[in-house]
Automatic annotation (TrEMBL):
Keywords in alphabetical order: DNA-binding, Transcription, Transcription regulation
GO molecular function, a single term: sequence-specific DNA binding
Domain HTH asnC-type: 5-66
Top-level taxon in the UniProt lineage: Bacteria
Listed PROSITE patterns: HTH_ASNC_2
Protein's recorded name: Lrp/AsnC family transcriptional regulator
InterPro entries: ArsR-like_HTH, AsnC-type_HTH_dom, Dimeric_a/b-barrel, Tscrpt_reg_AsnC-like, Tscrpt_reg_AsnC/Lrp_C, WH-like_DNA-bd_sf, WH_DNA-bd_sf
Gene Ontology CC: one annotated term: cytosol
GO biological process: regulation of DNA-templated transcription; response to amino acid
């Protein structure tokens, strides 16, 4: 799909990534096209799954979720049963904003948002109660330098 995107598509997507509440008239005006072709392109991108969803982004600090921990996990178990329990535990916890399986020395990394260190400890204890983990290293983010949900929309290099 990325190869099929033209400049107009990329401009529409850039605007939607910035503010998905923009009126169709405003999007069309900003990209220099009429409403019907812009609407058709947006519909097509939604139908294809390129536009996955439109959400409200909330301020974690204003919700009292002031602590962001990055949790590095190493496991000594790689069987299907362990993996299923781990995935279920991670997916069921609202504190986990992101979870990635990694190549290299660390098996998984989690991004966890909680009010404070005590809440993180509660999360940690619940996680290790559900799944056996060989090694966990947690790092508290002291300052968020960049946080964006906008994907780069540059034309891919050939």
């Amino acid at each position: 799909m990325a190869d099929a995107l033209d400049d107009l598509d990329r401009n529409i997507l850039a605007l939607l990534q910035e503010d998905a509440t923009l009126a169709l008239d405003e999007i069309a005006r900003r990209v220099g096209a009429s409403k019907t072709p812009v609407w058709n392109r947006i519909r097509k991108m939604r139908a294809s799954g390129l536009i996955k969803s439109e959400v409200a982004l909330l301020d974690p600090d204003k919700l009292g979720l002031e602590s962001c921990f990055f949790v590095l996990i190493r496991t000594s178990q790689h069987d299907a049963g362990w993996l299923e329990r781990f995935l279920q535990a991670v997916r069921s916890r609202p504190e986990v904003l992101e979870a990635h399986r990694l190549a290299g020395d660390i098996d998984y990394i989690l991004k966890v948002r909680v009010p404070n260190a005590r809440a993180y400890d509660t999360f940690y204890r619940a996680l290790i109660k559900e799944v056996s983990i060989y090694n966990v290293t947690s790092s508290l983010s002291m300052e968020e330098i960049k946080n964006t949900t906008a994907l780069p929309l540059a034309v891919p290099a050939n």
